[in-house]
Amino acid sequence: MITVLLPTDFSKNADNAIRYALRLSGKIDCRYVFFHGVLIPVAAPPEASMMMIDINKDAVQKQLEAYAGKMFASAKIKMPAGRVSCLVSQGFTVGEQMLDVVKKTDTDLIIMGARGTSKMRKVLFGSNTADVIASAKVPVIAVPESYDYVPLKKMLHASDLTNIRKELAFTLPLAKIFNATLEVAHIADETLKDEKLIAQAQSIIKRRSYKKLKLYVEATTFGQSVATDLKLLIARHHPDMLIMFRHKHNWLGRMFFTSRTENLIYETKVPLVAFNLPE
After folding, report:
1. In the chain, what percentage of residues exceed pLDDT 90?
2. Residue among 188, 186, 187, 182 at smallest CA distance from 156
3. What is the reported pTM?
4. In what order do the strands lie in the sheet with 213-219?
5. How far apart are CA 15 and CA 258, in angstroms?
6. 38 - beta bridge partners?
């Protein structure tokens, strides 16, 4: 059984992401943790801040519990008995609170909206998100606002192939759960090193028994940014989900938190799975 963390700020975008999460996880044996982070006003005296939070926390807890039931009903999924919990925490940043909850609940996966309409607006693609993805050892699925759930049939795994063996250890099991096609797409730079990486990846993929695993090598365009190349890649493949690995030594890791990437993800209109690849 895996533990799925579902952060919410009670916005419509959070509602949509959680409905997606509940429908997506229907084939998986899951335990769900609904989470809402209450921000402590930085300017307020510590005593006043804690008093205000203590007064509101019980009310927010009841609101979150009612919200969880509402979301299962909205997704037309029966709430699993004994497998749903609701946590309200407090802190100076939502990102720090999320990392704390991940550890306390042994979270395996975070699913949340790519944008929020309140305090959590920048959790996914702002400084808080950089902290969460860089520090948490669990994948994060970011669901674009207004994205309508569709069965997961095709996954696009964008890779520079440097760590393809490790990456497939994460993505192949996921693809198998949904019986989805896994397309590994690589933007070639025509160097000798890149040619060796492609040959190695072809050999690794050929030895895998999963018939829906494919490798695509795409040519880069001179003078064009990696983010633009990736956007065109998505347009050609039409995936139901985009997979990216953050690693400090790869090009995806270096460009992951730039404003260009933020705009790219908003424009793709498909959920993004962000993995923090271990060393």
Report:
1. 47
2. 182
3. 0.85
4. 84-91, 30-39, 2-7, 109-113, 140-143, 272-276, 241-246, 154-158, 181-188, 213-219
5. 27
6. 90
